[in-house]
Every structure is written in C-alpha cells, then in structure tokens.
C-alpha cells in the first residue's frame, strides 16, 4: 500500500512538474538572452505534455486497478500564520483526472498543430511561452485540492488567454479586446479570491476536502447548510460565470476570437471556457446547500444557452459562430449541474471540448472547401430556417434578429451602466485634482481632461 | 567566514555618504556615474551582509552604530532599499545622470537606510525632514517650481515637529493627532494626496520614486504612533487608507499619462500597506511588513521599465498604442512581471503578502476584504491597460537602435529574479515578519478592541 501511495504521489507530481520544468526552461532562456529555435520549442512543449499525459494516464490506471476513488497529494503548508493558512495540495479523483487528461490530450493536439500553423510567424516564441503558462495553469487548476492552488492556476489561465487574444498586437483591435476580457477576468478573480477568504473563515483553511468532506467526488457530507455556504456559492457562481462567459459576461467570448486559431480552439472552444464548469463541478456540494442556488445555476445556464443559440444564428464569421455554439453547450452543461446531473455534465463537457476543438482547427480549411464547393456548383447553398422561427410573427422575428445581432445588448448595457459612469466619475476627479494642483502651483489655465468616448 | 565580525552596518550607512562626498568633486558625468554604481554595489553587498549577519547572530554588537541598529524590523529592509536605489541608478538615462543627481541619490540611499535602522525618535524625525527636503533639491536642479511641493512639505515638517515635541510627555491625544496628520500627509492619504502625482509629473521620475517608495512614514507609524495612538484614531485612519487605495486604483485606470498612472498605482499600493499598519492586528501587521518588501521591489521594477522607455521616447501617453514591444521586448516583459507582482499575481513575490492582507482584513469585517479586492482588481486593470498602450500597436520606424543597454539588461534580470525567485522565500519572510508584528503589538499601550468576527462568533 505505501508503494502504491508513493507511486501515485510521484505520478501526480510529475503531471505538474513537467509543465513547470518547461516554464523554467523558458525563464532560463530569457535570463540568458538565448533565442530558442522553433524545432527546439516544439520538442520541449510536446515532450512536457507527453510526460504529463503519460503520468496522468498511469495514475488513472493505478487508481482504477486498485478501486481507489480519491487520492490526495499534500505538498505541505506553504505559509502558516495566525488566522491564515496557505497550503498547496493536489487531488487525484474522477473529476481532476478526467479534466487533466482532456486538457493534456487537447494541448498535445494543438501543440502539434501550432508548430506547423505558426511556422515562421514572428511571434512563434511568444505564442509557445504563453501556451506553456496556459498549460501550467490548466494542470494546476485541474488537480487543485485547495482554493489557493485553484486560484493560482485560474490566474495563469486568465493571463495567458488575454495575452494570446492580443497576440496580433500590431492591430488595434486585439489589444482592445484583450483588455475587455482581462476586465471580466479580474471581476471573476476578485469573486474567487473572496470565496477563498470565506472558505478560510468557515473552515480555517482552503481545502475542498474540509469543505465538502473527504469523499470521492461527487459525494459529500450532507451538512452544508447556512448563510455562509449560500454566499460562498454565489461567489463561486460569479467566478464561474466570468470564466465561462455566462450571462451577463458573455460579451467577451466573440472578442476572444481575435487570437490565432489554435489558441481560440484550445482556450475558448475547449478548455478555458470550461474552467467555470469545472469549478462548479468541484464545488457542486455547495450548490446543494440551498435549493435557490441550484435554481440560480439552472436559470443562468438555460438563459446563456438560449442567448448563445440566438446570437450564434446571426454570426457571419465561422469563429464567432463556433464561439456562440460553444456558449450554448456550456449553458446546457451548467444547467445540468444545477439539476444535479454531475456525471452527465462531466461527460457532456469532455465530449463537447473534443468536438469543438476539432471544429475550430478544421474551420480555416472548411471555409476553403466551402468556397471550392460554391465555385463548383455556381451558387451559394441556402441555409434552411428552422420551422419554429417561421411560425413567429414578423415583428418578433425582426426583434429577435436585432437582439441577436446586437448580442443581447450585453456589451452596451455593461458599458452604459458600469464602464461609462466609472470613467466619467474618475475623469472628473482627475480634472479636479489637476485644477487643485495648478492652483497650488500658481498656474493659470487648468488642464481639462476630456472624457473619452470609448471606455478603457 | 564570520560575518558578524565586521561592522557591516557602518559600511551600509557610511559608504553612500563617503561616495556622495567623493562624487560631488567629480566633474565628468560618466565618471560620476561609474563611481556611484561602484558605491551602490558595495552598499548593496554591505546591506546583504548586514542582513545575513543579523539573522545568523541577532544580538551581535557589531550590528549597532550609535542610535542605529539592524533590528528585526530593519535587517531585511536594508537589501531591499539598496536594490531600489541600485535599480533607480541603472534605469537612469545618461542624459540625466549628472554628478549632482548621483550625489542626491547616494544621500537619499544613506538617509533612507539610516531612517529604517534609527532607534532614536529625534534621529528618525530629523531624517524624515531631510528626506522630505531632497525632492526640493531635485525640483530646483530641473528649474521647476517648488511651490506646489512646499505646500505639502512645510506643513508636514511643522506637524511632524509639533507632534513629536508634544507627544513625548504623557502623549496627549491632540499631539498624537498632529503626528498622525503628518504621517498621513507624507503617505498621501486622501484627501492629502494632491502633491504626489504632481511630484511625479514635475520632478525627475527617479527622485519621486526614491521619495515615495521606501515608505519611511511607515517606520514613523510603527515606532512613534502605534504604541500610543487610541483605537478610534487608528480605525478612522485605516478607513481613510482603504478609501485611498480604492480611489487611487480607480484613478490609475483612467490616467492618460504614464507618470500619473504610476503615481496613482504607487499611491494605491502604499495606502494598502498603511491600511494594514493602521488595522494593527497580528495578521494585518504581518501582511503590512511583507507587502512593504514586495511593493518596493515590484514597483521599483515597474518604474525601471517606464524610465527606460521614457529615456528613449520622452513622456509616454497612454491614449494610443505605441508598439514598443518589437523594439524593447525585455522592457515589456519586465513591465508586465513587475506590474503583476505588485497586484499579487500567483507565483510572484506579491502573491502571499496580498493574500495575507486580504484574508487578514476579513477579521475586521468582510466589507474590508471586498474593498481591498476591488482595489487589487482596479490596479490589475490599470497595469494591463498601460501594458497594452505602451507595448502593443504598430511599431514606429527608427533609424537608431532602441534595444536595451547592458545596464538595463542587468536591471531586467534583477527584476525577473526578484519577482519569481523572491516568491519562493515567502514562507520564511512571513515567519520572520510575524515575529516582528508580535513584538510591535506588545509595545502598544492601548488595549485592542474585540475583532468584528469574534463578536459575531460569540
């Protein structure tokens, strides 16, 4: 038995150590001012992913063979102070191993695809550095057994996503969209951080085991009742909503398509967009603590799915259409979690991530094939309108079309009621501060800062 | 080698003074810069040795020089402050590196480290007054108006002297209030912060950084204020600090000039540290002492990247995208990692202190944690906005190379190592700072009130 534990611990640590070593190599190359060759980078990335993947599959095989549903890898207490306890800990169970295997499998495919797709691209090294950060973040988040470990991975995924959205940085739109996504991510990061603090207040530490009991996922202790758990659930839902682009944060998903196709595929089609789903699955016992929390998750999921379907119907570019199709499925998976169908949601998530990755990386060549087909037959094939849409009154059809085209006015609403008032308020403060400074300095003409039209 | 056998503290404090006296007689800027760099490196080595000597033999008599002593509070700060000065020197362009600038920087290094190690109240007050007057010298050397700055500096000095004079005997509340007001002025706590962005705009960037980042007012708060200040006064100040942290973070988001952005970011971060000091629980004080270190290092790194960019392109606007990544990718990476470390990004030196601060604030009420998380969120947004504005966009064509210079390369490597490798030492830093926090709270003569969460639990 101790041998088996040691082996599982070694394999579990190897899953995390390989991406970490990869990042260390990139860091050393930066410090040493060494520019790595494309081929070297490709081999390093694929090597790290394969080592992790083999370790994950090995761990899964051992656990299956020994009917071991749950195994914890403790790295010890990182920081201990009165009223504060920071611990890094990993868990091997059905949820974590499924998600990490999915992440590593898809990353292996995308890494192989990208080495060819981005061949001789000026930002080749930058892409793979960010890809390595993403991989590290994803693996850390997937295996996390404490909220701090999850938070570390969560932030790394967010940062790499945003910098990859702004990958084509010579154009103005990618950085602008990257910033928008970063703002949403910061909101959900703040919610996750507050949830972590609340977990510490409830249990004195951030272990998921302490929160829901040391049972194999998705079983848990039945006694998770109280206002603290409800608030914790709300904070987790906000964090998940931001990361998975649920309503009202859905506006960032099509903006994220500015990045290169491989990153869109693995981030917004497959892994990053499902990280919120993963979080809700991990803390699903907390959702059971109050029926209204589960109901909230169902409503959020179904609303997002409906919105994703409607907005996806009117998209004119393939990546946006796929992004909204992803959103529809993510919404349905979230609703399944709310209904308590945890295994079903997990299987749905795994299947959807694989399918969507395939669709994203096939998209450029699909368009090419489609154009060839159109040229061959001489006309553009007509898209059939669903029956139920035809039965709607013309006015409703027009309204729905406009609503979908404007993406549910979500961006406009957030901009009008949050971003713009914020900008106006603080620009006014800035203006007054400059006047005050000029007054003290005895300058005559106070500078007036104009209020920008485009917030942030 | 027995580190405690040498008088490292004297070397740390006196080397820059001797260096300043020598550099003052050098006419050639290049020679003055070389001398200053040599002195700074020697000072850094001496500061590290002092720190190591303290932790290997804390009670050693060699770590004392008159009223100056490398104690538990000061020992780890000496290398940090030496790095701040070293980075500032490395990031200064040749154009601004005049002999007088070097003298000012060396005097500032000596005075700052002396203030941190000073055990006498009178000595600390004198050094704070000296440090407050250094920016006047900086402004004068650039032929800029000092009027705006004096509106702050003069009341600060008067309040500090009055407060200290009357607070010594029996500590009347109004005298402590004067002292507190002086500390708030020095820390730029709203609404007394107007001088800080103006100083960054009008004075040299390096001068402003060296005045604001060391947070000497924190030493004054810990040594002079905390033992005597009544609860209500500290509580009211902590709320003001919290408000300043959020307000300055919001202001950093909307700035269109790089220096003002940096000024408000620094203000937000330093206000968080002051909030933690004023909260005066063991956890918050530990967080304050850890944040003090991480903020100096990360903000020094951020300032280094901005100054290196300014030396190439002049004043930087955040209104449009400049595309400097292609010309100076090292600076872009340095800017990003230092900026993220300052907001507590995981894996960096700022992560544990920020977590500790926000978690610790929950003891006073969840509202405090929410507000701090909001400030951290705004700061993160401001940093990424500035990064995108400076480093993305269409690159300008230039006929001369704008690649980073060897000293800048050294600076960036230092920043990267400090930010990432420093993060690994967080547990040891927290343990040592927790001990200091405990000692500081034991000196307090006023009983603390029950914590909000304790009341709820009862």
What features would you describe in this structure?
The complex is a heterodimer of chains A (456) and B (458). Chain A has 456 residues and is mainly alpha-helical. Chain A folds into two domains: 2-367, no CATH class; 410-456, no CATH class. Chain A has 18 helices and two strands. Chain A has helices at 2-31, 38-65, 94-117, 124-143, 147-165, 173-203, 208-212, 227-243, 252-255, 261-270, 272-282, 284-287, 291-313, 318-338, 342-377, 387-391, 394-405, 410-441, and strands spanning 70-81, 84-93. A two-stranded antiparallel sheet of chain A has the order 1-2. In chain A, helix 3 packs parallel to helix 15. Chain A is globular, with a radius of gyration of 24 Å. With 458 residues, chain B is mostly helical. Chain B has two domains: 1-119; 120-452, no CATH class. Chain B is 72% helix and 1% strand. Chain B has 19 helices and two strands. Chain B has helices at 8-23, 29-56, 77-90, 99-117, 121-141, 147-167, 173-187, 195-202, 205-212, 216-225, 231-254, 258-279, 282-313, 329-342, 351-361, 366-391, 406-424, 426-442, 452-457, and strands at residues 64-65, 68-69. In chain B, strands 1-2 form a two-stranded antiparallel ribbon. In chain B, a hairpin with a 2-residue loop joins strand 1 and strand 2 (68-69). The longest helix of chain B is centred in the middle third of the chain and has 32 residues, at 282-313. Chain B is globular and about 70 Å long. Classes of the chains: A mainly alpha (456), B mainly alpha (458).
